[in-house]
Write a structure and sequence with these properties.
Number of helices: 32
Pfam family, one: Transket_pyr
Keywords: Glycolysis, Magnesium, Metal-binding, Mitochondrion, Oxidoreductase, Thiamine pyrophosphate, Transit peptide
Helix content: 25-40%
Strand content: 5-15%
CATH architecture of the largest domain: 3-Layer(aba) Sandwich
Strand order of the largest sheet: 3-10-11-9-8-4-7-6
Structural class: alpha/beta
Distance between the termini: 88 Å
Radius of gyration: 36 Å
Largest sheet: 8 strands, mixed
InterPro entries: 2-oxogl_dehyd_N (IPR032106), 2oxoglutarate_DH_E1 (IPR011603), DH_E1 (IPR001017), KGD_C_sf (IPR042179), ODO-1/KGD_C (IPR031717), THDP-binding (IPR029061), Transketolase-like_Pyr-bd (IPR005475)
CATH superfamily of the largest domain: Thiamin diphosphate (ThDP)-binding fold, Pyr/PP domains
GO molecular function: metal ion binding; oxoglutarate dehydrogenase (succinyl-transferring) activity; thiamine pyrophosphate binding
CATH topology of the largest domain: Rossmann fold
Shape: globular
Subcellular location: Mitochondrion matrix
Length: 1011
């Protein structure tokens, strides 16, 4: 502290000489001594005020000021005149003894004033020099193991790292300087020579580790990082630790060599050039386990995945090696290429002596798409484990350099870091920095100096490290784990490496990177380099090396022999979220009613209509709550009530419900209001559905960031952890899901087929043509229907009107696509998601205008016991009892139903035209459609939709309808609706109304003018 005090006081002195203001300070009584202080020639203006304050403090406590000021004030008090009291501070000019200044020494004191000024300036320069290394040292660090590239794409040396920038020369190298309080390079020393200062700074910041942390805005965090890198001997490993590191390098390196030898023509996306990744991940896990983590979820691209599965997760080697054989599938699903697969394994960690669960999440070739999925999974595991601060749950994300800087979902995911309902309290990011993206030079793939610069936006420390220095890698991994434990914030480890093969093992990289690959061919693998190092240090001898290599070689050969005996691929061996207990004793064809008791319905509605006493509710919401109570009294519940009843009834059964998305708390259309805000007390809120009963499940309703891609991926990951939950993502408008298409296509639609991974995730997509233009009309139902795995023809003899047929359809489908028209049916659909004996994603085209439509209401009787979801709602008017005379049966889905029945009533055609609603479009309800068409044997069949002909459900339902009805000579079903279009909807209100009338005229075969 004395060293720090001396330096700071010296700066104060220097500031006073320059006449700089120290800010307003209180005045002190003017004494003769204080007048003497103020009369000193180098003090003036506001500086004298500062000196007065210091003098006042000194009079109370002489130890409160630096010794130089103590001596000065003592001389003043002793009667020294102006210009006589000053003496040079002893800490500024090393080796000069402190002496009392008397009047006889005045001339000496005056002569030293210039020397003192220079000394102060030099020490300020030393502080700036040290800060420059802390800030810019990474820019000249030796990070490239090939020695040909600068990791920051800049070969120049920052001027502030050169001596002449500060006016120093070689003559100054052996001068001794006081170290500032913002560095720990001195250890126990308070002064060092300039030569030693520079040597230590270069060894810390400019060798094989480059540390970026001065962009952090938190001083405590900066200090913490300085301590962990600047303190002497902080990076050294013990002999035992070096042996462990060496053995891990053996596994990482020899695993890839073995695969290359046995299957030279197979793609495997090996790790050659970054073999240190395996020891790095293991060090992160070891250290985190020691710090209390017992579950790690890893997300990664394909490079090195098999190695991670083998040597980090310890997936049985024979299981991995069997993936290289052509085997039959032992269970359902198409499977996936081996370098996309995941796993979940619990194993004993020898370093921490604790069990730890490690999961690698399956990931497609959309490299960064897995990032939010991992974080959602970690968040859910922490939630169910009561780990509110994620002390026991950790996300480890691996990235490629080009993908990390190039793909927007990375930034979207980082933006979730500190959001209360999404935070995983810090993830550890490891970038496998190949210094090339497929064939693209980094100078053409990013505009930032480093591929990791995206992390600077959210205040991540970034540790760049040369992979050919495995011990440096171990150090940064340890610091990263400690950082995450201490501050619960993200951290990035940038492993600067190279790719010994091409993009894959069959690629020829010399086509586009000839110079780089000429150097790679001459570069020894890190295992050879480290082997030489530990032998040279006496840590190991030749026999030890040979024995360890032979031991792992035999393990690989034994696993290879065992793999030859495997005859079937078990995709279930690659599950990253196993639910074994969930499927036990469940009949996949047994459905249960989804209705609830009337008393329960009343209780939930009453709670949904009330607020606690003293809560200052918005007046508009007072009317809303009163309206909810009135709807119950009138036996006519709206959409918001139907949704709340579904959530509330599940919550009372102990089911966790999570609703996430943009503005979902209120609802985009102001219909939901699940979080009420006190109008007089900031941040005082009330969630009615979390106040139903003592033992209820927790209801999480949370407004998300303005992201679809990352947030949908997050909710998917969340849904994977516990099947006994209802996880919902709602788009602000249905077509906003466009920007989450990667998650939809690669994970939700095909996840079970590729990875045997079930999910009950629900997507609510507001949909409906109401004149709101091309970006607020269509949720693109055609896309979801196109991706259904159901065949478009069926043998009618297999269509039976029983529960087994419908259950089998749901069991076999990849997802459910629905467009409900009543609150009760929506209620049942949501409850069915949880009560099914398996899990399927559910895509719901939710309404906008129907949220308040007076006819889109449901009586209480449609919610209570022994009721369930209606896949098709049949015509229930006069036409039902006039089947033989009905001219047309109009099939439709969604909001257009209400337009159709209004027009039918206006035209007086209620006994001639039947209107039937298809509530579940996929799986297609063949059984119920067959029953309905048989009811009207003479009627023409029409499919009416408000979407354009090349959109909506038409292309999906046409072949399915026709496979049922062509045999009865009716000629199939006909289309009524808008013509094909490139745009989903018109942006012109007049055109919209005209198109809507044309649709209705076509359906009812009347002139448009009659509508």
């Amino acid at each position: 502290m004395m060293r720090a005090s001396g330096f700071i006081r010296a700066q104060i002195f220097h500031a006073s000489r320059r006449g700089l203001s120290a800010g307003p300070l209180r005045r002190t009584p003017v004494t003769a001594a204080s007048r003497n202080v103020m009369s000193e020639g180098f003090m003036n203006g506001s500086s004298s005020i500062y000196i007065e304050q210091m003098y006042d403090n000194w009079r109370s406590d002489p130890n409160s000021v630096h010794k130089s000021w103590d001596a000065y004030f003592r001389n003043v008090e002793a009667g020294a005149g102006p210009g006589e009291a000053f003496q040079a501070p002893p800490t500024l000019i090393p080796g000069r003894p402190q002496q009392a200044v008397t009047s006889a020494q005045t001339s000496t004191a005056v002569s030293t004033t210039g020397d003192v000024s220079r000394a102060i300036q030099d020490h300020l320069k030393i502080q700036l020099l040290i800060r420059s290394y802390q800030t810019r040292g990474h820019n000249i660090a030796d990070l490239d193991p090939l020695g040909i590239n600068s990791a920051d794409l800049d070969d120049t040396i920052p001027r502030e790292l050169e001596l002449d920038f500060y006016g120093f020369t070689e003559k100054d190298l052996d001068r001794e300087f006081v170290l500032p309080p913002t560095t720990f390079i001195g250890g126990d020393k308070t002064t060092l020579t300039l030569r030693e200062i520079i040597n230590r700074l270069k060894n810390i910041y400019c060798l094989h580790t480059g540390v970026e942390y001065m962009h952090l805005t938190n001083f405590e965090q900066q200090e913490w990082i300085r301590k962990n890198f600047e303190q002497p001997r902080v990076t050294e490993l013990t002999a035992q630790q070096k042996k462990v590191l060496f053995k891990r390098l053996i596994r990482s390196t020899k695993f890839e060599e073995f695969l290359a030898k046995k299957w030279p023509s197979e793609k495997r996306f090996g790790l050659e050039g970054c073999e240190v990744l395996i020891p790095a991940i293991k060090q992160v896990i070891d250290r985190s386990s020691t710090l209390g983590v017992d579950s790690v979820v890893i997300g990664m691209p394909h490079r090195g995945r098999l190695n991670v599965l083998a040597n980090v997760c310890r997936q049985p080697l024979e299981t991995i090696l069997s993936q290289f054989s052509t085997l039959e599938a032992a269970d359902e699903g198409s499977g996936d290429v081996k370098y996309h697969l995941g796993v979940c394994i619990e194993r004993f960690n020898r370093q921490s002596q604790r069990n730890i669960k490690i999961a690698v999440v399956a990931n497609p070739s959309h490299l960064e798409a897995v990032d939010p999925v991992v974080q959602g999974k970690v968040r859910a595991e922490a939630f169910y484990g009561g780990d509110t601060k994620c002390d026991r749950n950790l996300a480890v994300m691996l990235h490629g350099d080009a993908a990390f800087s190039g793909q927007g979902v990375v930034m979207e995911t980082f933006n979730l870091d500190d959001l209360p309902s999404y935070s995983v309290h810090g993830a550890i990011h490891i970038v496998v920095n190949n210094q090339i993206g497929f064939t693209t030079d980094p100078r053409f793939s990013r505009s930032s100096p480093y591929c990791t610069d995206v992390g600077r936006v959210v205040g991540c420390p970034i540790f760049h490290v040369n992979v050919d220095d495995p011990e440096a890698v171990m150090h940064v991994c340890t610091v990263a784990a400690d950082w995450r434990k201490t501050f619960k914030k993200d951290v990035i480890i940038d492993l600067v490496c190279y790719r010994r093969q091409g993009h894959n093992e069959l690629d020829e990289p010399m086509f586009t990177q000839p110079l780089m690959y000429q150097r790679i061919k001459k570069t020894k693998p890190v295992l050879e380099k480290y082997q030489t190092k530990i032998i040279g240090e006496g840590v190991a001898d030749e026999k030890y090396i040979k024995d360890e290599l032979a031991k792992y070689g035999q393990i690989l050969e034994d696993a290879y022999d065992a793999a030859q005996k495997i005859t079937h691929v078990r995709n279930r061996d690659w599950l990253d979220s196993p639910w074994d207990d969930f499927f036990k004793n469940r009949d996949p064809h047994a459905f249960v009613p989804t209705g609830i008791e009337k008393d329960e319905l009343n209780a939930i509605t009453e709670k949904f209509s009330s607020v606690p006493e003293g809560f200052n509710l918005h007046r508009g919401l007072e009317r809303t709550l009163k309206g909810r109570r009135q709807m119950l009294a009138d036996n006519s519940l709206d959409w918001a009530c139907g949704e709340a009843l579904a959530f509330g009834s599940l919550l009372k059964e102990g089911i966790h419900v999570r609703l996430s998305g943009q503005d979902v708390e209120r609802g985009t259309f102001s219909h939901r209001h699940h979080v009420l805000h006190d109008q007089k007390i900031d941040q005082k809120v009330y969630n009615q559905l979390n106040d139903l009963s003592e033992n209820q499940g927790e209801y999480t309703v949370c407004n998300s960031s303005l992201s679809e891609y990352a947030v949908l991926g997050f909710e998917l990951g969340y849904s994977m952890v516990n099947p006994n939950s209802l996880v919902i993502w709602e788009a602000q408008f249905g077509d906003f899901s466009n920007t989450a298409q990667c998650i939809i296509d690669q994970f939700i639609s095909s996840g079970q087929s590729k990875w045997i991974r079930q999910s009950g995730l629900v997507m609510l997509l507001p949909h409906g043509y109401e004149g709101m233009g091309p970006e607020h009309s269509s949720a693109r139902p055609e896309r979801f229907l196109q991706m259904c795995n159901e065949d478009d023809t069926i043998d009618t003899s297999h269509v039976t009107l029983d529960e087994t047929f419908a259950a089998q359809q749901l069991h076999d489908t990849n997802w459910i696509v629905a467009n409900c028209t009543t609150p009760a049916n929506f209620f049942h659909l949501l409850r069915r998601q949880v009560l099914l004996p398996f899990r399927k994603p559910c895509i719901v085209m939710t309404p906008k205008s129907l949220l308040r439509h007076p006819q889109a209401r449901s009586p209480v009787e449609e919610f209570v016991s022994n009721t369930s979801f209606r896949r098709v709602i049949f015509e229930d008017g006069p036409a039902k009892d006039n089947g033989a005379n009905v001219e047309r049966v109009i099939f439709c889905t969604g909001k257009v139903y209400y337009d159709l029945i209004a027009a039918r009533k206006q035209l007086g055609l209620e006994d001639k035209f039947a209107v039937t609603r298809v509530e579940q479009t996929a799986p297609f309800p063949y059984d119920l459609i067959k029953e309905e068409t048989n009811r009207y044997p003479n009627a023409e069949l029409i499919w009416a939709q408000e979407e354009h002909k090349n959109m909506g459900a038409w292309a999906f339902i046409q072949p399915r309808f026709n496979s049922l009805v062509l045999c009865d000579n009716r000629g199939g079903i006909k289309y009524a609706g808008r013509k094909p279009s490139a745009s989903p909807a018109t942006g012109n209100k007049y055109t919209h109304i005209n198109e809507q009338k044309q649709l209705l005229a076509q359906v009812f075969n009347v002139p448009k003018t009659s509508l």
